[in-house]
């Protein structure tokens, strides 16, 4: 059976607290996935584009060490700026070059979700009640 990993890509910050907060998103997502009726991932990690670690390469290497042979990379970015369009795919290409036997897939970035508008409206409602 193929073990599958999810790498949640963020920008990275000079502020340690911001990076810790982002890593907690990954931990919470991993816990929610494990608790679901049909978990999708055997390994979940945060990764950062710049300014801190783990990098995408480091997170993918850890997933491979955990015997994952399939890795999904999810850019947790709101819009398709330079990082989503160029930087993340370039880093992903490096991972694929170094690990040609691993299936690596770049998922759509968060901001492309049709559910984002509803999420934002709901979040606004909770703050205005």
**CATH topology-level fold name:** Rossmann fold
The ordered string of helix (H) and strand (E) elements is EHEHEHEH
The number of distinct β-strands equals: 4
Biggest pleated sheet = 4 strands, parallel
Our count of helices gives 4
Number of domains: 1
> Do you know the CATH architecture?
3-Layer(aba) Sandwich
Any overview of this molecule?
The protein is α/β, with parallel strands linked by helices. It has one domain: Rossmann fold (3-Layer(aba) Sandwich), CATH 3.40.50.1400. Helices cover 46% and strands 20% of the residues. It has a four-stranded parallel β-sheet, sandwiched between helices. The longest helix has 20 residues, at 16-35. The protein is globular and about 50 Å long. The mean pLDDT is 96.
TL;DR?
The chain has a single domain (3-127), classed as Rossmann fold. Helix content is 46%, strand content 20%.
Which properties best describe this structure?
single chain, 129 residues, alpha/beta, Rossmann fold, four-stranded parallel beta sheet, 4 helices, 4 strands, 46% helix, globular
């Amino acid at each position: 059976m193929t073990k599958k990993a999810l790498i949640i890509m963020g920008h990275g910050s000079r502020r340690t607290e911001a990076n810790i907060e982002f890593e907690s998103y990954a931990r919470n997502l991993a816990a929610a996935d494990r608790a679901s009726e049909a978990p999708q991932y055997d390994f979940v990690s945060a990764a950062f584009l710049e300014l801190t670690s783990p990098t995408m390469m480091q997170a993918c290497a850890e997933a491979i060490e955990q015997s994952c042979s399939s890795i999904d990379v999810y850019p947790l970015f709101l819009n398709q700026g330079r990082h989503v369009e160029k930087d993340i795919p370039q880093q992903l290409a490096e991972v694929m070059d170094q690990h040609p036997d691993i299936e690596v897939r770049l998922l759509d970035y968060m901001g492309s979700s049709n559910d984002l508008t509803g999420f934002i409206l709901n979040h606004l409602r909770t703050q205005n009640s």
